[in-house]
Amino acid sequence: MNNSSLAVPRSVAQHPLPGASSQRRAWARRLRSGMGYLLMILLGILFLIPFFWSVSSSLKNDTDIFIFPPVWIPTHALWSNYPEALSYMNFDRLLRNTLVIALLNTVGTLFSSAFVAYGFSRFRFKGRDILFGLLLGTMMLPFQVTMIPLFLLFQRIGWLNTYYPLVVPAFFGNPFFVFLLRQFFLTLPRELEEAARVDGANPLQIWWRIILPLAYPALATVTIFSFLGSWNEFLMPLIYLTDQKLYPLSLGLSVFKSSFTTKWGYLMAASVTMTLPPLLLFFATQRYFVRGIALTGIKG
After folding, report:
1. Neighbour count for residue 61 (Cβ, 10 Å)
2. Residue 237: which of 251, 224, 252, 225 has the closest Cα?
3. pLDDT tens-digit series, residues 84-115
4. CA–CA–CA angle 46, 48, 53 (5° rounding)
5. What are phi and psi of 8, to 5 degrees?
6. How far apart are the C-alpha atoms of 230 and 105, rounded to whole Å?
7. CB 178 within 8 A of CB 116
8. Who contacts 172 (Cβ-Cβ below 8 Å, separation ≥6)?
9. pTM for this prediction
C-alpha cells in the first residue's frame, strides 16, 4: 500500500476539526464563568467578615472580644447579651420611633416621586427639560450646604424636636428617585394611556390604575432605598431631635455606646439586632430590586 495515501492532508493538519474548536471555546467559557463565580464568592466572604465578627463579639464578654489571637467562634456563647442590651436601651420604643419615621418617609417619597416622574415622562410642556435638568442639579448639592438654612427654617416655624423635619420633606419628592422612576415610565407603551383615554380615564386615573401597577419593580427599588436610608439615618435626627423619647434606633445606639463604653458585647448585640431588619428586607425583595435597577435607563 502506498504510504502517501495515508498521509493527513495539509489543510486538515493546519486547521483542526470544528468540533475540537467548539470544545475549546466551551471550556474557555466555563473557565471564565468559574473564575467569575470564585471571585464573587471571595468578595462575598470578604464583605461578610465584619458582620460575622459582630455576631461573634455579641456572644462574648469584654475579655474574650479583645483576646489575641482572636477567637471567631466563642466556646461559651453569652446569649444573655441580647435581652440585657435590648432591655437597657428600651428597644421597643426606639424601634417604634424608627418605624414611624421610616414608613412615613417611604410612603411620602414613593408617591411624590412617582407623581413628579409621571409628569416629566408623560406630559410635554414648555421648559420641561430645563426643569428636569434643574431637578437633577439639586442632586449635586450636598446636605451640608443646606443644613444650616434648613435648621433655621424649621426653628422659625417651630418644628424642632418633632418628626416634621424628618418626614414632611419626603412628600415633596426625591430627585434621584424621580429620575429613576422617570426612566422606567419612559419604557411603558403609550398605547395603554391612549386606550384608557378612549375609555374616559383622566391623567390621575391613568397614573393610579395603569402606570403604578406596571411599575412595581421600580417602585420596589424606591421602597427599599427609601426605607434603608430612613432606617440608617443618623445626622438629621441628631440635628432636629433633643428629646430622647423621640430618638430612633440610630441615635439610641449612639447613646447606648456612650453609656456602656466598656460593655462591647452589649453594643455588638444591639448593633446586630438593628442590622437584621434591613438585611431581611433586602433578601426578601432582592428580585424586584435587581429587576427595577436593570429596567431603568433603557430609554432616555
Report:
1. 14
2. 251
3. 888 888 888 999 999 999 999 999 999 999 99
4. 110
5. -75, 130
6. 7
7. yes
8. 112
9. 0.79
C-alpha cell at 63: 475579655
Residues belonging to the chain? 300
Cβ neighbours of residue 71 closer than 8 Å, sequence gap 6 or more: 56, 60, 64
Each residue's pLDDT tens digit, 38-68: 999 999 888 888 888 888 888 888 788 888 8
| Grid coordinates of 166 | 424628618
Asked whether the CA dihedral 173, 176, 178, 184 is positive or negative, the reply is negative
Residues 6+ apart with CB under 8 A from 121: 181, 182, 185, 186
Residue 158 backbone class (left: φ over 0; alpha: ψ -120 to 50; beta: rest) = left
Rounded distance, CA 76 to CA 232, Å?
32
What pLDDT does residue 167 have?
A: 94
Distance between CA 195 and CA 206 in Å, rounded?
Answer: 10
In order of start, what are the domains of the chain with their CATH numbers?
81-295 (1.10.3720.10)
H/E run at residue 234: none
Omega of the bond prior to 69 within 30 degrees of 0, cis?
yes
Helix residue ranges per DSSP H, the chain: 10-14, 18-57, 62-65, 81-88, 91-122, 128-137, 143-156, 164-167, 175-185, 191-198, 203-206, 212-214, 216-232, 235-240, 249-259, 264-284, 286-295
Q: Can you say whether residue 80 is alpha, beta or left, with left for phi > 0 and alpha for psi between -120 and 50 degrees?
A: alpha
